[in-house]
Amino acid sequence: MKRVIIVEDEDILRDLLKRKLENNGYEVEIALEGEEGLRKIKEQKPDLVLLDIVMPKMDGFTVMEEIRKDEEISDIPIIIVSNSGQPVEIDRAQDLGVKDWIIKTNFDPMEVVEMVNRFFDTEDGKEYQRAEDK
Hints:
With 134 residues, the chain is of the alpha/beta class.
């Protein structure tokens, strides 16, 4: 069973994504903020991380930077789930190696499940392409 860690501070969204992913056969762990998320990622080495950008204590960019510095977890794939879709933030996320991103205000929870399914259907992300890039 594939393990996904959701690092998200918005309770309703986090719980909804967790439930949808579990209903689709994924093992899901949650973290309420960046520091907790980074700790769980290091401990559990998930198959995929869904990561918010704006969070208390440690933002998503800092989490990504710390992940990329640590050889044991640097290759764990990340999909951003954020309120912001500013090009400068998307560019920064791409530079940090994110696989994809979803803007919270424009998505339906099943879109996240479909994205995660598509990611795992492509040899664990090795051949993954954003839907818009195909």
